[in-house]
Design goal:
This protein is mainly α. It is built from seven helices and two strands, in the order αααββαααα.
Length: 191
């Protein structure tokens, strides 16, 4: 089983979903496509980890709504309690920033503005997601609280807030003669 399969099982542990829903939600954690996810759903179904019901739609093909089976829950539990691998990071922005000292001020400013815009957008999205989670739970307090979704969304919100502050710090260090960077520490500036 690849890790994406475990991710799909993890998402299905919260509620039944379509392949489209799964693709949308998994992309918050792991970049993937429909063409990668649908074969995995078939494999998970063959292994009896998930099942689906067909929902009729007018003028469209029937919709498959996937759900975790008892066997799938047991399999998910084994994965959850196994040792976790280190995260694989592929961050183009990190590579760009590694060579910042060779770039002109205008290019650096453009990149930092791009980053700030990205982080502000993420902060807005994550705050909205947290509010939706709260509202969903308030609407049905007897439902199992979406605690996993809440803590993970809070995590990425905190990371985006910190990234935005870090971006401001980079701009400050760069604009104040970055050649003396050894004297300026992000942690010392009230992180």
């Amino acid at each position: 089983m690849n890790k994406l399969s475990y991710g799909l099982l993890s998402l299905l542990s919260t509620e039944p979903m379509t392949g489209y829903d799964l693709t949308s939600k998994i992309n918050r954690f792991w970049r993937s496509t429909h063409s990668a996810i649908y074969p995995l759903l078939s494999e998970l179904e063959e292994n009896k980890y998930i099942e689906f019901i067909l929902k009729k739609q007018d003028g469209k093909p029937d919709k498959k709504i996937y759900n975790l089976t008892v066997q799938g829950k047991e399999f998910l539990h084994k994965w959850f309690t196994s040792e976790t691998s280190d995260a694989v990071v592929r961050d183009e922005m990190t590579l760009k920033l590694y060579c910042i000292q060779y770039m002109d001020t205008e290019s650096v400013e453009k990149l930092l503005n791009e980053l700030e815009t990205r982080y502000k957008k993420k902060i807005k999205e994550y705050k909205s997601s947290i509010e939706k989670i709260r509202l969903k739970f308030c609407e049905n307090p007897k439902a199992v609280p979406p605690f996993g979704a809440y803590i993970l969304t809070q995590r990425v919100l905190n990371e985006a807030i910190l990234d935005l502050k870090w971006c401001d710090w980079v701009r400050n260090v760069y604009n104040n003669n970055y050649l003396n960077f050894s004297e300026q520490n992000f942690e010392d500036e009230g992180r």
